[in-house]
């Protein structure tokens, strides 16, 4: 089954991205691809709401990246296909190609000057619902059905793998900022960096649970025309300072966001 799925995915990717090409035309990008039917897209960099690049373990070994550019939604309810049509994917880029595309879209390469990591309490809910709760159900089954006890090695493997995934995801959950960009790093297998301009933020939501006030932990959501970026379990004092700066950037910047 895995081989069949791999072959299907390879064929689908080959048909979709056959003769993929990007041509810069003044202030726009002309993108063409497709085997059975050539699809041409004209993209203006200022219409891109967020840009992200990602790598998985094998792509890192091969030195290639996937780039995704998200454009503004039309304000109506959309299904998954319509949402994907608004996004432009560029697979298999080298490091040099990735940097050139980012420079075309963003004007310059981001150079983060501040890094914000979540509090260790970020682990609490994922560990409870992803490890403790399922294992608790298995233990209950062991008391009820004696045959379930023979599967305890699988339960141990599950605990180890789940804990590793949650911990690595916690370590990679990072918000990086500089004067011009906001970058959200996240992921376990596919490590993604999502980049947005502060002036393209439509609204900002911050919230803090009552039991987190004494330890100064909070959350922030950055809403754009192409989706939302969430940063959770950060230092709430730092979050409020960043929010004030981003709101200032939104108010003073006259650059077109679409």
Describe the structure.
The protein is 38% helix and 30% strand. It is built from 7 helices and 13 strands. It is flat, with a radius of gyration of 22 Å. The termini are far apart. The model has no long low-confidence stretch (mean pLDDT 85).
Question: How do the strands and helices of this protein lay out in sequence?
Answer:
Blueprint: H1 2-17, E1 21-25, E2 28-33, E3 39-43, E4 48-55, H2 57-62, E5 65-71, H3 80-85, E6 87-93, H4 95-106, E7 114-116, H5 124-144, H6 152-172, E8 174-177, E9 182-186, E10 191-196, E11 203-207, E12 217-224, E13 227-235, H7 236-252
Antiparallel strand pairs: 1-2, 2-3, 4-5, 4-10, 5-6, 7-8, 8-9, 9-10, 11-12, 12-13
Helix pairs in contact: 5-6
Summed up:
The protein has 258 residues and is α+β, with helices and mostly antiparallel strands.
């Amino acid at each position: 089954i895995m081989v069949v799925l791999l072959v299907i995915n390879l064929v689908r990717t080959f048909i979709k991205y056959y003769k993929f090409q990007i041509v810069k035309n003044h202030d726009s990008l002309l993108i063409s691809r497709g085997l059975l039917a050539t699809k041409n897209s004209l993209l203006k960099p200022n219409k891109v709401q967020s840009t992200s690049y990602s790598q998985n373990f094998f792509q890192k070994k091969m030195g290639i990246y996937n780039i995704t550019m998200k454009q503004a939604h039309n304000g109506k309810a959309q299904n998954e296909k319509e949402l994907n049509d608004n996004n432009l994917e560029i697979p298999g880029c080298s490091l040099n190609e990735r940097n050139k595309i980012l420079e075309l879209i963003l004007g310059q390469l981001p150079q983060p000057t501040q890094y914000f990591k979540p509090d260790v309490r970020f682990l609490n809910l994922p560990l409870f619902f992803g490890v403790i709760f399922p294992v608790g159900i298995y233990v209950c089954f062991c008391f009820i059905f004696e045959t379930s006890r023979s599967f305890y090695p699988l339960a141990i493997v599950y605990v180890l793998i789940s804990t590793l995934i949650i911990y690595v995801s916690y370590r990679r959950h990072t918000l990086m900022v500089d004067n011009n960009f906001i970058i959200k790093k996240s992921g376990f297998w596919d490590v993604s960096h999502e980049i947005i301009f502060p002036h393209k933020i439509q609204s900002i939501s911050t919230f803090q649970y009552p039991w987190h006030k004494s330890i100064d932990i909070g959350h922030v959501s950055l809403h754009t025309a192409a989706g939302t970026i969430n940063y959770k379990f950060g230092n709430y004092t730092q979050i409020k300072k960043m929010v004030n700066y981003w709101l200032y950037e939104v108010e003073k910047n006259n650059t077109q966001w679409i």
